[in-house]
Design brief:
Length: 311
C-alpha cells in the first residue's frame, strides 16, 4: 500500500525533518533570481524595495512575475528527488503511487473533472453578478500566460503534492504507524502554508477552513486511492484554470487572465460550500469510478508490522 512503501527501519523520522530542511533550502535558492530582479529594479528605477509581499508581486509584468516565482518550485522539486533517492533510498514512483507505474488516466480524469467544474462555477458566478467582472483579455500576453502556465503551474502544484501528500504523508506514517495522523498533520501544515496569502488578509483567518479542508480532501483522496495521481490532477486544474479565467488585485498572482474580478472578497458560503458539499461529491465520484472500499481502515487504521513492505 502507498504509505507502507516509505516505512523502513532505517527511515527514521529525523530523516524527514532533515529532508524537509533540504527541500526548503532548495526552494530558497530558487528564489534568488526573483530577489535579484527585485534589487536590480529597485536600484535602476531608484525606488525603495517594497516592504510587503503584495507590493513585490506587482513590481514586474505579470507573466515575468509568474516565471520568476515558479523557478523556486522547480528547485524544490529537484530537492525532493535528491532527498527521496539519496537520503531514503526510494524512487520518485514510491512517493507517487502504490501502482507499478503512474496512472496518467487518473491524473487526466481528475484534471478534466475539476476543470469542468471550475469553468461552470465561474459561469454561474459571472452571470449572477456580471457587474463584478471586466473583460481582461489581451491576445499576446494571454497566449504567453497559457504557455507559461501550462508548463510552470503543474510544476508548482506537483511539487506541493509530492511534499505533502507524498513525502510528508509517508514521513508521518513512519512516526505514528497509523493513517489518521499523517492525514491530519499534512492537512494542517498544508493549510498553514497559505496563511500569508493576501486572501487571508482580505477575508480573515476563517478562510483557513478552506485551505485546511482542501488539504484534508486531497489527503483522503490519496489514502483511499493509494497514490497522489488524483490529487495531482485536481491541484493542477485548480491553479491553472483559475489563473487563466480570472484575476484580481487581491489574489496571490495577478495574471493576464480572461476576466478581472472587481468585487471585494468576503468569506461566506464560497468558503464553506466546497468543504461540506463539493468535495464530498468529488470523493463520491472518485469512489464509484475506482471502487474504493474499506474506508475506516484506509483512513484511520493502524499500520501493523506485518503490513510493512521493505524495499
Amino acid at each position: 500500500m502507498f504509505l507502507e512503501q516509505g516505512i523502513k527501519r532505517e527511515n527514521a523520522f529525523w530523516k524527514y525533518l532533515l529532508g524537509s530542511v533540504f527541500i526548503i533550502t532548495a526552494s530558497f535558492i530558487g528564489q534568488i533570481p526573483f530577489s535579484a530582479a527585485v534589487f536590480y529594479k529597485s536600484f535602476t528605477d531608484k525606488i525603495d524595495i517594497p516592504s510587503d509581499n503584495a507590493s513585490i508581486m506587482k513590481m514586474f509584468e505579470p507573466n515575468l512575475t509568474l516565471f520568476l516565482v515558479m523557478i523556486s518550485f522547480a528547485y524544490a522539486f529537484a530537492g525532493i528527488y535528491f532527498v527521496v533517492k539519496y537520503m531514503h533510498n526510494q524512487t520518485l514512483l514510491s512517493i507517487t503511487t502504490a501502482r507499478n507505474k503512474i496512472d496518467w488516466k487518473r491524473i487526466l480524469f481528475s484534471f478534466g473533472l475539476w476543470s469542468l467544474f471550475s469553468f461552470l462555477s465561474f459561469l454561474f458566478v459571472y452571470f449572477k453578478s456580471p457587474e463584478n467582472f471586466v473583460w481582461n483579455f489581451k491576445l499576446v500576453p494571454f497566449l504567453i500566460l497559457v504557455v507559461l502556465g501550462s508548463i510552470l503551474i503543474p510544476i508548482q502544484t506537483s511539487t506541493e503534492e509530492y511534499i505533502f501528500r507524498g513525502y510528508l504523508m509517508q514521513g508521518f506514517a513512519n512516526l505514528a504507524r497509523n493513517r489518521w495522523f499523517p492525514l491530519l498533520m499534512t492537512s494542517l501544515i498544508f493549510g498553514s502554508m497559505h496563511i500569508f496569502n493576501p486572501e487571508v488578509a482580505k477575508m480573515g483567518y476563517v478562510i483557513m477552513i478552506y485551505y485546511i479542508g482542501t488539504g484534508l480532501f486531497l489527503g483522503i483522496v490519496t489514502l483511499m486511492d493509494d497514490g497522489i495521481e488524483l490529487a495531482l490532477g485536481f491541484h493542477a486544474a485548480n491553479n491553472l484554470i483559475g489563473a487563466l479565467l480570472v484575476t484580481s488585485d487581491w489574489s496571490v498572482f495577478q495574471t493576464h487572465s480572461l476576466f478581472k474580478d472587481l468585487s471585494e472578497p468576503s468569506a461566506g458560503l464560497d468558503v464553506i460550500l466546497p468543504i461540506v458539499v463539493i468535495y464530498p461529491i468529488l470523493i463520491l465520484i472518485f469512489s464509484k469510478k475506482y471502487n474504493w472500499t474499506n474506508w475506516k481502515e484506509k483512513l484511520t487504521g493502524e499500520i501493523k508490522n506485518q503490513e510493512v513492505i521493505n524495499k
